[in-house]
TrEMBL record:
This is DUF262 domain-containing protein. Residues 11-222 form the GmrSD restriction endonucleases N-terminal domain. InterPro entries: DUF5655, GmrSD_C, GmrSD_N. It comes from Acetobacter orientalis. Residues 593-688 form the DUF5655 domain.
Amino acid sequence: MKATEAQLLGFLKKSPQFIIPIYQRTYSWTERECRQLWDDVIRAGENQEISVHFIGSIVYVEERQSQISHQSPLLVIDGQQRLTTITLLLAALSKELGDGEPVDGFSARKLRNYYLLNPEENGERHFKLLLSQTDKTTLKAIVDEKEFPQDYSLRVKENFRQFQDLIADCHGELAPICNGLAKLMVVDIALSRDQDNPQLIFESMNSTGRELSQADLIRNFVLMGLEPLLQTRLYEEFWRPMELAFGQEAYTSDFDAFMRHYLTLRTGDIPRQDQVYAAFKDHARSRNATGPAVELLVKELLDFSRYYCAMALGAEEDSDLKLAFSDLRELKVDVAYPFLLELYADYKQNILHKEELLEAVRLVESYVFRRAVCNIPTNSLNKTFATFTKALKKNRYLESIKAHFLLLPSYRRFPNDDEFWRDVQTRDLYNFRSRSYWLRRLENYGRKERVPVDEYTIEHIMPQNDALPQAWRAMLGSEWKRIHETYLHTLGNLTLTGYNSEYSDKPFIEKRDIVGGFKESPLKVNKGLGELDVWDESSIKTRAERLAQEVVKVWGSPGISMEILEAYKPVPASRDSYSISDHQSLLSGQMSHLFAAFRREVLALDPCVTEDFLKLYVAYKAETNFVDVVPQTKQLRLTLNLRFAEINDPKGMCRDVTGLGKWGNGDVEIQLSTVNDLAYVIGLVRQSLERQLGSEIAD
């Protein structure tokens, strides 16, 4: 490696051509980064005390051995965002300069011939900077002063327009821009093709400019080390189609999420959002999918990316599935995508029929919606779906899905019809996260001609107004205030209307009888309202009960016989039965009071926690052990079912027992000998429980 300081413009002038390799990400600087560069240029240009301004490094390697007749183009490993942005600024400035030269060396002709073009070359060698794919054609059009291509690069075009606007705002005072550009400096880093590792250098230098996405790093890891012909083929056959499937905007915003879901499916572990790249490298190496052998992995990524785009980005062509996936997106069920990717892959391979996939998707929707209505914490959902595929029996595909849903333990349970029917009547559904979603689904259930619910607004039959009009108070009776507070935002009092402003706070009879009122409403959710004379507590409850019966059908539960369900239940392992009486030290003596206090606190952590006395220790479980207690004469020895690296222990009470023989499950050990440490220790135990319950993986 050879690194030197260089004036940016001089560096551009002497260099034959910069090429952005196909494995590099597309141009991604936004208005914010461009504005920062512009401000730096203007500040340097206006302040005579600033002699130079560093903007980072340009790392490159020669494409091939240079010949006597001409220099080889430079492949940019790091710095393409800066190079591209400076090129856009120079192109915008050259258009504004015309025949003028406000600073020596800054005329339109000189800017173009020194820094934008190789005037004596033809074809692609005519351009100083060649980007990749869509970015390339757009930048060439700008530099060549031609019309934008039809499939132009959004970022390249927008940032060029931004610089044109900023320059126009200078009202002809262009000298500060020229002087600022002349002061820009870079670190010129030339790599040796034979001695330097571009991938390692690329990773280590990814700390300036706009941070690379996890997908950018993955693409570079996959393609950078390959032979040029294989690199080009894999990019054009597999990676480029992925980029096109997502589209320019979605590739930037959604590709990292797709990679996370794919890795969750393939590994069973949910990587942190900032660790997707590291997880992918581990996965690729576990499959020996590096070098030329990476082709099968990249092909699989292309297939699964198309499945993801169908479900998550609206690319599905089948109308029934498209609607079901749209409902999932509106409900924001992203955590289910690892599971659904497996199902969709099997659907595409004719292992799972379309009708079965559709029913499975609707069950996922019902599961998430029912749990939200029943106010069950969502922190277990990611782990539930990350491990769901382990329960699949593909010779009885849909049956195994239904059975697994019904056998999920209490904190992961699929709420039954009675629980759902009861809770949906009393839940605040107006402030629900997706109220337009549930009203649309309820109204359109069973309809062949769908009602465009988005064109309607939500109507409170009993008005929201805290200062309830006298007519309403009289109709509700002496307990009007309690009724208003209790039922205002509930199922029985909510409906849809296109006449919200006309309804206002009018009395119920007027809402019923006006033009477009409840009597004339064609909507199913308004059925029966036109026949009522009174809207009071009894009317609200009656309507809620009737609508709740319909709601239970819309978001149905898995239909499976008890006989079949029994066949899916795990057979409990037979073992001797123990109780606290088998641990005399916990019944009396020095540790009995401490254990009693510990036991009370652990069982109070969550309703799903159970206690199991074994021969040598006591286990506390959700689905499996999260803390085990080994009674000793002067202390309780606790084992947490966590990797030692996962525990947050500011006091340093924990000991790493990885690989050591022990009773209990996990790699974290704590010695508890006094009640004074109990609160802190319970906090450590909670971490183990939350890990098992599947608390959201940190961003």
